[in-house]
Specification:
419 residues, alpha+beta, 9-stranded antiparallel sheet, 5-stranded mixed sheet, 12 helices, UbiD_Rift_dom, UbiD-like_N, FMN, manganese, lyase
Length: 419
C-alpha cells in the first residue's frame, strides 16, 4: 500500500489532508467530494486513505495497460501466480492483545448507518483445508466485536455454515491496507483459495503470506485483525448504504470476535466510501472479464463495461464484432448467465464507443426496433441490492440488441467527414 501511495504522490494524483478530521461523517464527506485518492493525516490521531482505486485510470496504472484494455487483460490472466510463505512481516511491528476497535479510524459514513463500518477489510478464512479471501462489510458492535454481512452462497458464507453446523468457531483474519492488487483480487470470482495466486499473476511477482497466531495466512498489510466467527451468535446488521446509494435491509448476521490486532508503526487505515467510485469499481470490474469470456463463447467480443449509471453492477454494455444475425441476442443471454445480478444489458457493434454513453444511446436510437430487438425476461434471479427487486430476489431483466442488421448494413453506415 505504501509503495502505491508513494507512486500516487509522485504522479500528483494524491490529495493530502493534514488538518484534524472526524471519522464520523466528515472524512467520508471529504472523500465523496474528492475525485481521486485522498490521504488523511489526522483522524483522531490516525492516518487513513480513501478512493485508492477510485477510477479506471488508477486501475489501468496498476495493471500497466490503457483504460480500454483493462478487461481484455483481466480476461487473459489465470490464477496461477506464485505465493510464498514467510516467517516475518512489517505488519507485526506492533502486536496488541488488549483489543479496542474504537481506537481505529473506522468511519461512520451516512446519517442512518447502524454505526461505524469497516468497508475495505479483506476477510481471510480457512476451513477443511480451503482458504478464501473476500471483502465483507463489517459493522462495529463494540470494542471487540463486528457483525459481518455474509452473502449466500459465497465462499465465506459456506465456510461459516459448515463450521457452525459442527458448533465450531471459524478462525479468520481481517486485512486492512494490503497491496491494492491483492485487495482487487479479493473481490474477484476466482476458484476458492486462488485469490492471492491471482494477485501474484496480475502484478507479475509473488505474493508473500505470513501466519497469524490462529493459523490464518495473510499478506503484508498496514493492519491485521485476528479472531473468529462465532458459530451461533448473531446481531442486527444494518442499515448500510450499498452500491445503489440506497439503504440495504437490516438482517441478523454472524458475529466476529477480534482477539488480537497487528499493525505497522503509524499504520494507514484503508476505507472504501459506500456507493463511491472505489466501491462501484471493486464490485463491478471483477464481473466484466466473466461477461467477456462468456460472450466470447457465442460471438466475437471486443469489450465489456458495467456502467457507472448502472452502479457498475446492474447495467452492462457489451461490444461485439457481429458475425451472424442472432449474435446480439446470444450475447445478451451469455451476459446474463455470467453475471446473475445483471439487470439490463445493451449489445452494440464495434464502431460504438462503450465508454461514451452518447454513442451507446445513438446505437439504441438508430439500430433498435422494439418488437424485434428487445428481450424481456420476467421472474428470474436478480440482485439483492436492487431496490426494485422482489422480496424473494427475483426481477425482470431486459436485453437490448443495438447491433446493425447485417443484410441492411448500408443503412447503418455512419457518415465520416473527409480528411
Amino acid at each position: 500500500m505504501r509503495e502505491f501511495i508513494d507512486q500516487l504522490r509522485k504522479n500528483g494524483k494524491l490529495v493530502e489532508i493534514t488538518e484534524p478530521v472526524s471519522k464520523v461523517f466528515e472524512a467520508p464527506r471529504i472523500a465523496k467530494k474528492t475525485p481521486g485518492p485522498v490521504l488523511f493525516h489526522d483522524i483522531d490521531g490516525n492516518k487513513a486513505i480513501m478512493n485508492v482505486l477510485g477510477s479506471r485510470d488508477e486501475l489501468a496504472t496498476m495493471f500497466g495497460v490503457d483504460k480500454d484494455k483493462i478487461i481484455k487483460r483481466l480476461s487473459e490472466v489465470s490464477p496461477d501466480g506464485e505465493v510464498v510463505i514467510v516467517k516475518d512481516s512489517p505488519t507485526m511491528e506492533v502486536i496488541e492483545d488488549d483489543v479496542d476497535l474504537t481506537k481505529l479510524p473506522i468511519m461512520t459514513h451516512f446519517e442512518k448507518d447502524a454505526g461505524p463500518y469497516l468497508t475495505a477489510g479483506v476477510v481471510v478464512t480457512e476451513y477443511d483445508g480451503v482458504m478464501n479471501a473476500a471483502i465483507h462489510r463489517l459493522l462495529v458492535v463494540d470494542k471487540t466485536r463486528l457483525a459481518a454481512r455474509l452473502v449466500a452462497p459465497r465462499h465465506s458464507y459456506v465456510m461459516h455454515k459448515k463450521a457452525s453446523d459442527k458448533g465450531e468457531k471459524l478462525p479468520i483474519a481481517i486485512v486492512l491496507g494490503a497491496d491494492p492488487t491483492v485487495i482487487f483480487a479479493s473481490t474477484t470470482r476466482v476458484p476458492a483459495g486462488k485469490e492471492f495466486h491471482y494477485a501474484a499473476a496480475l502484478r507479475g511477482r509473488p505474493v508473500e503470506l505470513f501466519e497469524c497466531s490462529n493459523g490464518i495466512k495473510v499478506p503484508h498489510a498496514e493492519i491485521v485483525l485476528e479472531g473468529y466467527i462465532d458459530p451461533k451468535e448473531r446481531v442486527d446488521e444494518g442499515p448500510f448504504v450499498d452500491i445503489t446509494g440506497t439503504y440495504d435491509l437490516v438482517r441478523q448476521e454472524p458475529v466476529i470476535h477480534i482477539t488480537r490486532i497487528l499493525h505497522r508503526k503509524d499504520p494507514i487505515y484503508h476505507g472504501i466510501l459506500p456507493a463511491g467510485p472505489e466501491h462501484l469499481l471493486m464490485m463491478g470490474v471483477p464481473y466484466e472479464p466473466r461477461i467477456f469470456n462468456a460472450v466470447s463463447e457465442v460471438t466475437t467480443v471486443k469489450n465489456v463495461v458495467l456502467t457507472e449509471g448502472g452502479c457498475c453492477y446492474l447495467h452492462a454494455v457489451v461490444q461485439i464484432e457481429k458475425q451472424t444475425e442472432g449474435d446480439g441476442k446470444n450475447a445478451i443471454m451469455a451476459a446474463f448467465a455470467a453475471h446473475t445480478s445483471l439487470k439490463h444489458v445493451v449489445v452494440v457493434d464495434d464502431d460504438i464507443d462503450i465508454f461514451d454513453l452518447h454513442d451507446v444511446e445513438f446505437a439504441i436510437a438508430t439500430r433498435v426496433k422494439g418488437d424485434m430487438d428487445i428481450m424481456i425476461i420476467p421472474n428470474v434471479r436478480g440482485s439483492s441490492l436492487d431496490p426494485r427487486g422482489a422480496p424473494d430476489g427475483t426481477t425482470t431483466k431486459v436485453g437490448i440488441d443495438a447491433t446493425k442488421v447485417l443484410r441492411e448494413a448500408q443503412n447503418f453506415e455512419r457518415a465520416k467527414m473527409p480528411e
